[in-house]
Amino acid sequence: MSSSFGNSIKVQIFGQSHSEGLGVVIDGLPAGVQLDMQEILRQMARRAPGQGDYTTKRRESDQPRILSGLVDGKSCGAPLCAVFENTDTRSKDYAALRDLPRPAHADYPAAVKTGGSNDIRGGGHFSARLTAPLVFAGAVCAQLLARRGVYVGAHIASIAGIQDQAYDPVALDARTLRAAADNGFPVLDLEAGEEMRRAIAQAASELDSVGGVVECGITGLPVGLGEPIFDGLENRIAAAVFGIPAVKGIEFGAGFAASGMRGSENNDPFYYDGEGRVRTETNNHGGILGGLASGMPVVFRAAFKPTPSIARPQRTVNLRTGLSEELVIHGRHDPCVVPRAVPCVEAAAAVAVYDLMHGVGLG
Amino acid sequence: MSSSFGNSIKVQIFGQSHSEGLGVVIDGLPAGVQLDMQEILRQMARRAPGQGDYTTKRRESDQPRILSGLVDGKSCGAPLCAVFENTDTRSKDYAALRDLPRPAHADYPAAVKTGGSNDIRGGGHFSARLTAPLVFAGAVCAQLLARRGVYVGAHIASIAGIQDQAYDPVALDARTLRAAADNGFPVLDLEAGEEMRRAIAQAASELDSVGGVVECGITGLPVGLGEPIFDGLENRIAAAVFGIPAVKGIEFGAGFAASGMRGSENNDPFYYDGEGRVRTETNNHGGILGGLASGMPVVFRAAFKPTPSIARPQRTVNLRTGLSEELVIHGRHDPCVVPRAVPCVEAAAAVAVYDLMHGVGLG
Amino acid sequence: MSSSFGNSIKVQIFGQSHSEGLGVVIDGLPAGVQLDMQEILRQMARRAPGQGDYTTKRRESDQPRILSGLVDGKSCGAPLCAVFENTDTRSKDYAALRDLPRPAHADYPAAVKTGGSNDIRGGGHFSARLTAPLVFAGAVCAQLLARRGVYVGAHIASIAGIQDQAYDPVALDARTLRAAADNGFPVLDLEAGEEMRRAIAQAASELDSVGGVVECGITGLPVGLGEPIFDGLENRIAAAVFGIPAVKGIEFGAGFAASGMRGSENNDPFYYDGEGRVRTETNNHGGILGGLASGMPVVFRAAFKPTPSIARPQRTVNLRTGLSEELVIHGRHDPCVVPRAVPCVEAAAAVAVYDLMHGVGLG
Amino acid sequence: MSSSFGNSIKVQIFGQSHSEGLGVVIDGLPAGVQLDMQEILRQMARRAPGQGDYTTKRRESDQPRILSGLVDGKSCGAPLCAVFENTDTRSKDYAALRDLPRPAHADYPAAVKTGGSNDIRGGGHFSARLTAPLVFAGAVCAQLLARRGVYVGAHIASIAGIQDQAYDPVALDARTLRAAADNGFPVLDLEAGEEMRRAIAQAASELDSVGGVVECGITGLPVGLGEPIFDGLENRIAAAVFGIPAVKGIEFGAGFAASGMRGSENNDPFYYDGEGRVRTETNNHGGILGGLASGMPVVFRAAFKPTPSIARPQRTVNLRTGLSEELVIHGRHDPCVVPRAVPCVEAAAAVAVYDLMHGVGLG
């Protein structure tokens, strides 16, 4: 495993779904920053389960315990360690899974990789539970970014094919980035949100699940941020976002749609706005040119596959007997991970971007 | 800049489009491997310009000069350095571009980042010319992977919306991975290829450009390869592929389409094949589960925007005068980068995968 | 701060002397290894305070709590996190130190580095308390190394100028490496040990402290281990050992003495032993040639300055008033850190060497 | 091999003693810096052979050819690549060495490591010739450091036991740091220098060699520089300096001598100088406390073993026949590497320190 991220800071995640604790160490933070712990808890709450009909009934402790790195809430320069204790875990639900790998889960390759020693309980280190420390780290980085005028936000772009209103990639601002979070169910268009919830409920009632897309925006990045060839904004954001379970694709700006455009259509003309700033009329480039921030809002989308754990019987193999078998997954699972994935995508983006800022003395 | 890639090997790319030389240092290669230099040159030739009506008329030296790391063609354990000399460069074409950033190019953010000191000639370090050392490094890694039974190949999935036949993600094998390269114009369906070439020619005749998608496959990966959370196969391949200019999106397996599926549809059932191997009936997961190789072929697609350099007049800003201005780009530019991007995508994938293999003692 | 070590594994240390907890995350361990926790506790006990007249009266909890990474004592492939809770801390002892930096401590530069936000309690992140997680990590790595026939041991080479018998660098074996640890006070020559203890007691009675040298040996390394130029055995061991507080020098083999030798004297002749193994007649090279393991025992020495915290009045500055002042340090401090530093040096060496082994697939 | 150094910049060295070329890529340099190439060549000349009776007769090209990274002598932000061509190489001198490893050289472990594929010519990648690119990189970093008021200098502390005058660790300033370089033979005390040269000549006449110690100083470091636990000044300088062939020890400040001191003697009292700066009355800590720069001059010493290549017959093994054999080394070898090592130590220190400065936005 390699659950460490960052070139100038180090974000080290640890834990398994049902281990005694899980958490994160953030090394390299600036000293002397008063962290707003209430705001961090608010971000944790957005990811926490049990918020509505679309989330798992499982109750997790999303209360971080700060072991080190803060003195009276202020960073002291030493690595910050936050731990989440695991309390409500039902390990017995998963016992049979060692023999029967769940389709679309990491069970099978993890068993091969570890010679059968992986922690099978709740998906172990591959569980979406591990996004709790990621969201914690992201919330810390977001506070540090805000001090530089950089804001990160996201919303559900689609669930089960139902589209939310898209960000306006030219006019996107910090207020809009906060809007979805303020809406509870993180969409811009509340009616679309209602329709999504119905689609989730429908899938759940059919013992099935749905996927979706999260759209994320970042404003206020200093022009030129990014370290191409291999540490450009796209490389780094992608490397972080693929750390979220169930992500199967990412695109920046016009993304895959740009592949069907003509250059004359896709190229975003430059102009001077009234205040002497260089801007582009359109933003097909998603705020990134050559891996560098162009000064326009960064916009990207991450595709999430449907929750793999569904209650319907599924075909799988029995690794012990060598025979095919039918598997029925019990336990508590979100019929759709996308709403809770929204703060995770923000967190991954915040960590990636803050790491780049920090690396050029802007963190 | 950070033009170094790799956790267990180090691939350090250097050079600018019109600098005296450009190249790559590969540190950490195993000693005692006889490299097939002819095969490397064959890969370089696939990327080289001047192959047909769709590529730039500029002639580049794609002949690597090996400064170190090989003794009688065999790796000696010391870093391998390959240099490409720059000979046919017309720097004067680009002189005016310091004031007039080209739309959809890195010119503007690079100028801000460097305080105006970036090498503007031919796009400098952001030029697609820098994919020459990448393809060299990829060709070296591909030979090392082949010794482990791992094969990488790619083809044009689409240009200007015209689709090539897709890889069969279940049946994909090494022979199919080689097929597109053998076809010259790297498609599986030669008729679709002809149509693509006509679309490229049409765009060129209209002083315009087109984009496209490259599909890449990898077979033979050991089950379990990948180091989640942040160094899983998807994280690492994405981090490398976004190092290729013009890439704006990447998706694995069903990718964005998976976001619209039900779990019951997307989940790939496991079964035992006749020889006791675990396989999946479908391959929506693109050979990657939880960031780990599942044993099924890895399949991913990278979206390329249309060539930003078009001959039509474009609106831009004059950074010296602070006024808007019209820009006409002269010089030699591909109306479509996608055909030459095919070996670049293979190279990025080969480097990323070999780095992971090497890190677990399989390189 | 950058309290992370390792190129192929990641050892991330966190905590401050008086923070709620401190600990370590070890990422990249092989799965399926049953760790001998009793052996780990034995190593922790060697570092723990309160063992004799020469150590601090402070009682620390050196009981690691394993939050993650083990299932039934066996590594599961996920990062291993061990936490030490802080219980018996007397923070009030240190309150005045914010104004009055202790001579030979990190107080002053740490205050400047952090703008006064460093955790001053007990030295914060600079405390020797932070060697507890290091010894834990070293004990884990030592168990993994032992499976490969690699053994690490150390002893006090000198305290206050009193010399222990030196290792025989040619004949050194695993049994000798264990000898000092078995002796309680970690020396080879028990009489010399008695004399050292008297010197420590004498210094303590004079409100003073003494330093010393630790000699460390490593046997069983595979010939060729090490990754020069910059990740050779010497570079890596030095980089780890200087992470132990109070270390001011390191030398390998004949070390500084070699600088006064003739080549004809220093060069170690090769010969074949009876079993076809290449060995050297002498071992001035300390088992390392060109940064690579030669197959002879690795031997190095680390110099420790005397404990900076002494009870005598000392001159310092008052950072608040800008005046010179006299400082009297209260509290509980070892008059000599060297005996407890012995397992720390072993741990640093074990981590550095295991990281190199792991990187070539031997971990 | 791992010939890359740096956490925030990347210094990648490549080449073998007799390969077609050798050199260095420096990635991450700030853009817009006009490099003084004459000054770089002056530094290269200090390391170059053929300067006097004590250096090899071999003539090497120490003329760097800049392939990339500079435009009109000014850094453009892209990686800087400098290449040294190899011209005067006599490979035949070394042919027999594949069977007969030279005592105190890397030949034997390198052969085992690479399965016999290492480049044996002139020591291959282990040759002191590889310090040419290191000195180049150091000269670049030194220029960048000078812009921040940081200066690095070194001198011969001893050769064959003959002592030069030591640096005054309290009063050391930039002028003194330059003094040795200006003296040609890099000592402070010219008479001691004469004596050293006689000792070298004497050893050479006896077909033998001598070693020595280099003392290095750094002034002007910002208080607090360094990233403990594992990237403190001592860790990083040591990691770089052990990249120079023949270094077997390093000590900071009082170093090994501190191990014999009492705390009351070793602790350096703080005081305010007339201009409100905190200083210490003595400097046993060598300008480093807890891995951080204290504001006092950094002083360290590196021990060099005597040149391993001596003309006397030596005992070794024949790896082909499995028999013991006598070896006579022909060719041109320095009877003492220490004078030419002085700029190498400066270079290693400059690279290590600049990397830390760059990492906190001061580069």
User: What distance lies between the first and last C-alpha atoms of chain A, to the nearest angstrom?
Assistant: 28 Å
Under the CATH scheme, which architecture of chain A would be assigned?
A: 4-Layer Sandwich
Shape of chain A: globular
- Please tell me how large the radius of gyration of chain A is: 21 Å
Helix/sheet category of chain A: alpha+beta
- Can you identify the CATH class of chain A? Alpha Beta
How many discrete structural domains of chain A?
1
- Compressed to H and E, one letter per element, the order of chain A equals EEEHEEEEHHEEHHEHEHEEEEEEEH
Q: What average pLDDT do the residues of chain A reach?
A: 94
Number of strands of chain A: 18
Unreliable stretches of chain A, pLDDT < 50, 5 or more residues? none
The H-level CATH homologous superfamily of chain A, spelled out, is: Chorismate synthase AroC
Share of helical residues of chain A: 25-40%
Beta-strand share of residues of chain A: 15-25%
Question: What does this molecule look like?
Answer:
The structure is a homotetramer of 363-residue chains. The first copy, chain A, has helices spanning 37-47, 107-113, 131-146, 174-182, 190-205, 233-241, 263-266, 338-359, and strands at 4-5, 10-14, 21-27, 65-68, 70-71, 74-75, 80-85, 151-159, 162-163, 212-219, 247-252, 270-272, 278-280, 288-289, 292-293, 298-304, 314-318, 323-327. By secondary structure, chain A is α+β, with helices and mostly antiparallel strands. The first copy, chain A, has one domain: Chorismate synthase, AroC fold (4-Layer Sandwich), CATH 3.60.150. In chain A, the strands form 6 sheets. Chain A has a 5-stranded antiparallel beta sheet. A 5-stranded antiparallel beta sheet of chain A has the order 9-8-10-16-11. A two-stranded antiparallel ribbon of chain A has the order 5-6. In chain A, helix 1 crosses helix 8, helix 3 crosses helix 8 (338-359) and helix 6 (233-241) packs across helix 8 (338-359). The longest helix of chain A has 22 residues, at 338-359. Chain A is globular and about 70 Å long. Chains A and B meet through strand 1, helix 2, helix 6, strand 11 and helix 7 of A and strand 1, helix 2, helix 6, strand 11 and helix 7 of B. Strand 11 (247-252) of chain C pairs antiparallel with strand 11 of chain D, so a sheet runs across the interface.
